[in-house]
Amino acid sequence: MKLLILDAGHCLSLALAREANRRGDTELVITEALALSPGQLEEISPDALIIPPLAGPSEANPATVTAHAETVESCMAYCRHAGIALVWCVSDQLYEDGAELPIDEHVIPRPRDESLRRLILTGDRIRESLPEHVIVRLGPLFALEGSDAWLPGLIDRLLAGQRVSAAEDIVFCPISADAAAMALIGMLQQLNCGATGWGAYHLAGTEPVSAYTFASAVRMQLDTRLEGLGRKVALGELKALNHHHDQPLRRVLNCQRVLEVFGVHQKPWRLELGRMLDTWCHAYQAQEERP
């Protein structure tokens, strides 16, 4: 199976490259830019085109959101012309108001924000025009490298002794870029072998958590590992922010359909976080010991 991936520097693109290198049944072609020409698509002739998510669309500049949506729609038109499947990953922030219960995969987001509505329009056009598509709504991604990786900036601020502010009343289910990449390639392998599971899916980690609690887990595990290495580092403090004073906003994705159709289980984000911090500490120790 050959996959074409846009935006080479995105943390999900880097994770897909690592996962493909681990396997012998997947070939990747990765482009630097989030853009594509019809000739480029036909020349590469992949089985599917994967577009990583736009980071933080609810906070992004409206022009950035519009440009992303227009690029996705151009890619959709190219895929339709060439008969190639499209995989578009989007942020769970499209569920602007969240929900009290886990959000099922058939529920299409209905945000009030104009920029977010522009992304919903793109999703509607994909569903109407391209039968062989997968729209994957992701919980917040985290990784050790790449754009939208979350962890590197958080670790750097903590190491620098800076105060880190994080929302205490927005609840979601983070997912590691590695777990998302493993799931995506597994899904596409099944679809490439004739499975009939096109449509929208949710991918997220287990255990709903606030951004503040996630940052607290990072700080605690980082402090424990540095102490184990004999390094005394005064990590920055955390500050809890509250934006929703009446009740927390919950964006918890129900990932039941991806389990039933493809057998993809959610990975515990705490285990993935621990694994990544182990990797980070090995690199940190090696750098400290380098003459």
TrEMBL record:
Pfam families, per the entry: RmlD_sub_bind (PF04321)
InterPro entries xrefs: NAD(P)-bd_dom_sf, RmlD-like-bd
SUPFAM superfamilies, A to Z: NAD(P)-binding Rossmann-fold domains
Name this protein carries in UniProt: dTDP-4-dehydrorhamnose reductase
Organism listed in the record: Modicisalibacter ilicicola DSM 19980
Residue ranges occupied by any RmlD-like substrate binding domain in the UniProt entry: 66-279
Source taxon at top rank: Bacteria
